[in-house]
Amino acid sequence: MINKPKGCYDLTGITAKKWKYVDRVIDELMEKYNYNYIRTPIFESSELFHRGVGESTDIVTKETYDFKDRGDRNITLRPEGTAGIVRSYIENKMYGEPGPVKVYYNGTMYRYERPQSGRDREFTQFGVEVLGSDDPFVDAEVISIPVVLFKMLGLQGIKVKINSLGDKESRDNYREALIKYFTPHIEELCEDCHDRLGKNPLRILDCKVDKDNPILAKAPKTIDYLNDESKARFEQVKTYLDELEIDYEVDTRLVRGLDYYNHTVFEIEVDVEGLGSNNVLGGGGRYNGLVEMLDGPATACMGFAMGTGRFIQALESMDVKMPIHDDVELFIMYVSDTEKKYAASLTQYLRVNGFRVDTEYTGRGLKAQFKQADRLKAKYLIILNDEDLKNDEVKIKNNKTKEEELVSIDYLLYYLDEHLLEDDYDLDDCNCGEECKCKGEHDHKCKCHGGENEEV
Ligand code: AMP
């Protein structure tokens, strides 16, 4: 037997349906924010990530999937989405368009991590990038996107942490201060941090090994090294967050793992039991130098990424309901050949008329078909019978109450519309716990979806 590679997973069954639903909500939300979908290659030249993501980040030094292709080119499976989008922005001369360019992606990333819960080698990220604007309003808008998404899907208990690394001058001053502070303590830090001290000392603050080391807790704070301009900019970001009604807290130790950030950085955590250090659902920040670093024109950019798997894990841990179907509305049953032919056309007819329909394909007898209908959680059974068909009638059985009725074919659609509508979602399918009649749909105004419990 061939098994899947370590750190990968097969997406199947009800979990796959949840992912598809989350994907749909993301697409709808992005349409409202007017961000365009972008798809870049899953693999790129290795150089893109070495130059773009940074030589001092774990995801480039230790975690990339690198290989030579048959043309002897150095190729890397993308460990994150931003570098590829910036490459595409430059290659396709998108900077020539009246900006800013607002895009979103939703695809697989690859990191050679030690597989554990919430850390996979193949995982999916949803993220956005805004290229071509330095407006602090953009920083606030980008931060608002995951917050609104989480609210729409009914995820409670999220916390937004923000910080500013400032402009180049502020970041350089802070870097100096960190080197001065950490140098006498170097022996108390992990091996990797020895390396980081010379290359990018900010990364020491982000170290997974040293995260509870008291030396880190007493380290200089970014906020004390911001010059006046950077301070004023950070204040503006906070003002816009207030305008967008996004709650946040300032965390002066937040630096984020990648080398290319400046000014605003942020992370979103969720307070859910059982997620441990995987409670960080996503994060991002401003990266005004990256386009230039990759040979494009100086361009101010802001973005974020979140892991869809971790997000769905959080939704599941909180038992958040989603309007997805794990049943069929109708199961069509038959025995004879003529009934089977009728079943084929009736199945097609009902599907094109909008019903979720399944039928028998393996030659089972009626008794086994009843069992199969139960397995599929069919709401109604249509039991075909040659005698009934001669009279242009079909037998319909409510699979819950077990009541049966003979229904004329001419009247069938009306009958099903009426009966299936009645049996649709329970009111308590929504997560707000109120009788809001939302049927768990996200596009409305009940409390758990960010509104005031109004009816749809
Ligand atoms: P990062 O690009 O490292 O800032 O990651 C952003 C988000 O992507 C994280 O908060 C996670 O939700 C998700 N993520 C990162 N690495 C992994 C991984 N190995 N497995 C699953 N999700 C991940």
Descriptive report:
The structure is a single chain. This protein has 456 residues and is α+β, with helices and mostly antiparallel strands. Helix content is 35%, strand content 19%. The chain has helices spanning 13-33, 46-52, 58-61, 82-91, 136-152, 168-182, 191-199, 214-217, 228-243, 290-293, 308-317, 337-352, 366-375, 386-390, 412-422; strands at residues 36-37, 43-45, 65-68, 74-77, 101-110, 122-131, 158-164, 249-250, 262-270, 280-286, 301-307, 330-333, 357-359, 380-383, 393-398, 404-408. The strands form 3 sheets. Strands 1-5-6-11-10-9-7-8 form an 8-stranded mixed sheet, with helices on both faces. The chain has a 5-stranded mixed sheet with strand order 13-12-14-15-16, with helices on both faces. A 3-stranded antiparallel sheet has the order 2-4-3. A hairpin with a 5-residue loop joins strand 3 (65-68) and strand 4 (74-77). The longest helix is centred in the first third of the chain and has 21 residues, at 13-33. The two termini are 51 Å apart. Adenosine monophosphate binds next to strand 6, strand 10, strand 11 and helix 11.
Identify every distinct bound molecule in the structure, by name, code or SMILES. Answer: adenosine monophosphate
CA gyration radius, whole angstroms: 27 Å
Number of E strands: 16
Report low-confidence residues grouped into runs of 5 or more: none
Tell me, what's the shape? elongated
Largest sheet, if any?
8 strands, mixed
Mean pLDDT: 89
Report, as a whole number of angstroms, the end-to-end distance.
51 Å
Number of helices: 15
Structural class: alpha+beta
Q: How are the strands of the biggest sheet laid out side by side?
A: 1-5-6-11-10-9-7-8
- Strand fraction band? 15-25%
Helix proportion of residues, in percent?
A: 25-40%
